[in-house]
């Protein structure tokens, strides 16, 4: 039943890790806040990830942001407590050969990760000490002792609960259909449950943000990548480190289960949108082509069928099961499980308890968009987290809250402007 609801200071669209943190910060600063989500709190990417909270491997231009995010996780840990499930006992990448090690050294040099984050190279002896149950011949590794992991199914809801306790009104199952504006300022949001008034709107709608922003003439180009992960049955507790090797990445949770996924490549389902923004995406696709598997499957047919004339245009834009609940790549996750149990033979008896996938929104340069577009007073965009938004999401949420309050942001947002895509050559993806 549509209803006009009296206004709040700020509406946050999207209750993923970015949106819940922005709402929590705004409420903590004394603002009235409405947080709306078309599904449920952290129902999409923010509960479907591996849970890595990392600075290690960041793009050097993100160093300030990832550091800010890491400090934000620490603060949230103090304010929210164990419900956040944050374990900051280190993240380690292991390399089988000299080529891998030189990538790590290059990253240390470019990012300043040694002085900024305490990251350092480790040799085979230290790897054996840190991970006595891990097999394999490792040439060395890269360790950031104060990176870590959290349970993705728990962290977002924990922040949302803390936001509710500070007065945030959380509306689940309510879709934002349009950001309304008048005279160059936002006035609120038209939703599936009626109009919601507010002088400030934060768009943190993950993979869907572009569809909400396009009618405002704001273009946030993203590709939707299908990323698969799984959780094992509970096994012997062996490590608190988050571990990444070429074939698999994993972290063990307090209940003994292990979240893992294949680090080798991601799946991309070709759809109608694939043809859009080719100029922006091709350079990094060509550079990293071994890391993406293209699939020509039923997705392209669904795309065509969805665009046939029908009355409910809003549903076409925001109700798309293939994006919200894509099928996991079973072959890939079974292979990753074999890699996991070969790497840690003491987990040989583990079974895959659950496998799932999520749609990751990746921008052409794999950097987020965090901006207050000058075209619309009161509008803030915090999206395009490009596969590492669980770790940086809280930091982005804090900065989005600062922008929504008209405050000077804590970090330099120059690398995260929307206009960068229209301006010039796309920055090369950075990864370990
Ligand atoms: C398998 C997998 C593994 C990953 N591993 C990691 C990792 O280890 N570490 C890491 O840092 N990152 C990881 N990521 C990426 C990370 O999960 C995301 O970058 C991050 O969660 C994005 O957060 P978000 O808040 O921007 O988006 P989301 O979590 O997607 O939240 C957006 C929310 O907006 C809502 N929404 C959308 N449109 C509307 C609308 N019109 N109206 C109302 N609500 C709307 C959605 O329902 C959703 O809840 C992984 C992702 C996947 C899928």
Radius of gyration: 21 Å
Strand content: 25-35%
Number of domains: 1
Secondary structure class reads alpha/beta
Give average pLDDT, whole number: 94
CATH superfamily placement: FAD/NAD(P)-binding domain
Helix residue percentage: 25-40%
Largest sheet: 8 strands, mixed
CATH architecture: 3-Layer(bba) Sandwich
In total, the number of strands is 20
Q: Which ligands does the model contain, each kind named once?
A: flavin-adenine dinucleotide
* CATH topology tier name: FAD/NAD(P)-binding domain
The first-level CATH class name: Alpha Beta
Can you tell me the overall shape?
globular
> In terms of per-residue confidence, which ranges show pLDDT below 50 for 5 or more consecutive residues?
none
Number of discrete helical segments: 15
Distance between the termini: 50 Å
Can I get a quick summary?
With 432 residues, this protein is of the alpha/beta class. It is built from 15 helices and 20 strands.
Description:
- The model has no long low-confidence stretch (mean pLDDT 94).
- The protein has one domain (5-423): FAD/NAD(P)-binding domain.
- α1 packs parallel to α14 (389-404).
- It is built from 15 helices and 20 strands.
- β16, α9 (278-287) and β17 (292-295) form a beta-alpha-beta unit.
- It is an alpha/beta fold and 432 residues long.
- The strands form four sheets. Strands 1, 2, 8, 9, 10, 11, 19 and 20 form an eight-stranded mixed β-sheet that branches. It has an eight-stranded mixed β-sheet with strand order 5-6-4-13-14-15-12-18. It has a two-stranded antiparallel ribbon with strand order 3-7.
- It is globular, with a radius of gyration of 21 Å.
- It has helices at residues 17-28, 45-48, 63-80, 98-111, 113-117, 124-130, 152-165, 209-213, 278-287, 298-306, 313-318, 321-324, 330-343, 389-404, 420-423; strands at residues 5-13, 33-37, 52-53, 91-95, 120-122, 140-144, 148-149, 169-172, 176-182, 185-191, 194-203, 223-232, 242-245, 248-252, 258-261, 266-269, 292-295, 352-362, 369-371, 379-383.
- Residues 13-19, 36-39, 43-46, 48-52, 175-176, 204-208, 212, 227-229, 261, 318, 358, 360, 383, 385, 387-391, 393 line the site of flavin-adenine dinucleotide (FAD).
């Amino acid at each position: 039943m549509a209803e006009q609801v009296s206004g709040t200071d700020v509406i946050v669209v999207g209750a993923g890790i970015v949106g819940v943190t922005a709402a929590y910060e705004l409420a903590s600063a004394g603002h009235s806040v409405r947080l709306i989500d078309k599904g449920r709190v952290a129902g999409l990417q923010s509960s479907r990830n591996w849970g890595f909270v990392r600075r290690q491997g960041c793009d050097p231009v993100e160093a300030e942001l990832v550091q800010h995010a890491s400090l934000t996780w620490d603060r949230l840990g103090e304010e929210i407590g164990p419900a956040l499930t944050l374990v900051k006992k280190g993240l380690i990448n292991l390399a089988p050969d000299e080529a891998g090690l030189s990538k790590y050294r290059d990253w240390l040099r470019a990012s300043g990760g040694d002085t900024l984050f305490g990251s350092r190279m480790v040799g085979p002896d230290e790897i054996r000490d840190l991970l006595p149950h891990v097999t394999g011949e490792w040439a060395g590794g890269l360790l950031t002792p104060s990176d870590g992991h959290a349970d993705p199914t728990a962290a977002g809801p924990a922040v949302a609960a803390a936001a509710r306790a500070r007065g945030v009104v959380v509306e689940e199952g309510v879709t934002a259909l349009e950001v309304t504006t008048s005279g160059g300022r936002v006035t609120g949001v038209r939703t599936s449950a009626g109009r919601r008034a507010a002088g400030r709107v934060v768009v943190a709608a993950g993979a869907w943000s572009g569809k909400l922003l396009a009618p405002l003439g704001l273009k946030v180009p993203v590709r939707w990548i299908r990323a698969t992960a799984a959780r094992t049955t509970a096994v012997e507790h062996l490590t608190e480190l988050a571990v990444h090797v070429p074939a698999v990445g994993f972290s063990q949770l307090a209940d003994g289960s292990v979240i893992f996924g294949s680090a080798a490549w991601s799946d991309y389902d070709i759809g109608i949108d694939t043809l859009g923004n080719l100029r922006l995406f091709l350079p990094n696709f060509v550079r990293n082509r071994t890391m993406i598997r293209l699939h020509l499957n039923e997705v392209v047919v669904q795309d065509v069928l969805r665009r046939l004339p029908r009355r409910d245009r809003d549903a076409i834009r925001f109700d798309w099961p293939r994006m919200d609940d894509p099928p996991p790549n079973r072959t890939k996750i079974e292979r990753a499980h074999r890699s996991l149990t070969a790497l840690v033979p003491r987990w040989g008896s583990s079974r895959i308890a659950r496998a799932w996938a999520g749609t990751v929104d990746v921008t052409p340069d794999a950097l987020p968009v965090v901006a207050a577009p000058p075209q619309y007073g009161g509008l803030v965009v915090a999206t395009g987290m490009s596969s590492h938004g669980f770790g940086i999401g809280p930091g982005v949420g804090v900065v989005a809250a600062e922008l929504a309050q008209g405050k000077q942001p804590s970090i330099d947002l120059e690398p995260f402007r929307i206009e960068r895509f229209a301006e010039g050559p796309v920055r090369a993806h950075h990864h370990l």
